[in-house]
Amino acid sequence: MRNFEILFDHSEPPGAADLAHASYGRLGFPPPPDKRPWIYSNFVQSLDGIVSFKGLHPLGSDISQSPEDRWLMDLLRAHADAILLGVNTLMEETRVSSSRGPVYRIEDPVLRDLRLRLGRRRETNIFVTARRNFDPAAYRVFDGDLLHSLIVTTAEGSSRLLRKSPEFRDRVVVAGEGNQVDLSKAVEILRARFGIQYLLCEGGPTLYGYMSRAGLVDEKFVTVSPVEVGLFVPPEQEPPASEKSNPLLVRPTTFTAPGFTKENAPWWQWLSCRRIGDHQFSRYRRIR
């Protein structure tokens, strides 16, 4: 793997020097807020801001095609107590896999060791859903052999899920009523009940958008891949079997949720920028 070329970096240094940081350079985080975790996100996007080709190639790795970007994902996971994802992301990635879906964990053994030296607990995946009717037992990530997993949902979503899968009662976090998860309440519960101080949001774009609208994203790491994708799905792209009768027409950007007005749009400080070849790796912190 190639080393990152540091163009500039104004972020905090790590709490302790560690050789695992050598390829990237310094990576530190400020103390978390009093009542919720410090929350940072990680996305790879095309030059025109698209995060997925969709169709038969929906993964971020199809946009990135960079081993260093995959390694950076592991580095960011090593610093997080847990990873936050939407259930739709799990279902989408399960659709294109040949198994019972992915497990979102650190692959690099050096970075798994770094996680231990940082004092982080067992790797944890947290999935958010308000309305999805799904069976956790159908997904490998809930087996419990590789990592811990939780589900954040509404009171109605919890009742529906536990009627089908009562054995997951201890893994359900209830935050909100009706068809909308109360994300602010959810992250406060994750801090108070599970001791999560640093939370990595890996999306998808809808979950990220609502997290940002709620003012809950403190930082974002953005990899820009040197490829142009286009917002609209071209007619020659083959849809998956599940979409043949109603093919998707628009591809997602990093923010697929109701946005902001000029008056309330958040601004971000550009903390650092790195490059490897033609890939750009930036870090931003929300200006409060």
Class inferred from helices and paired strands: alpha/beta
- The low-confidence parts are none
Question: How would you characterize the largest beta sheet?
Answer: 10 strands, mixed
- Number-wise, the strands total 10
What is the CATH class designation?
Alpha Beta
Shape estimate: globular
CATH superfamily: Dihydrofolate Reductase, subunit A
Helix segment tally: 7
The rounded Rg comes to 19 Å
Query: Can you give the helix content as a percent range?
Result: 10-25%
> Please, how many domains?
1
Numbering strands along the chain, what is their spatial order in the largest sheet?
1-9-10-8-2-7-3-4-5-6
Mean pLDDT: 93
Order of helices and strands: EEHHEHHEEHEHEHEEE
Which CATH architecture is right? 3-Layer(aba) Sandwich
The CATH topology label is Dihydrofolate Reductase, subunit A
Distance between the termini: 36 Å
Descriptive account of the structure:
The chain has 288 residues and is of the alpha/beta class. It has a single domain (5-15, 36-286), classed as Dihydrofolate Reductase, subunit A (3-Layer(aba) Sandwich), CATH 3.40.430.10. It is 23% helix and 20% strand. The chain has helices at 60-64, 67-78, 87-95, 109-117, 155-164, 183-194, 205-213; strands at 5-9, 38-45, 82-86, 124-128, 148-153, 172-174, 198-201, 219-224, 268-276, 279-286. It has a 10-stranded mixed β-sheet, sandwiched between helices. The longest helix is centred in the N-terminal third of the chain and has 12 residues, at 67-78. It starts with a strand and ends with a strand.
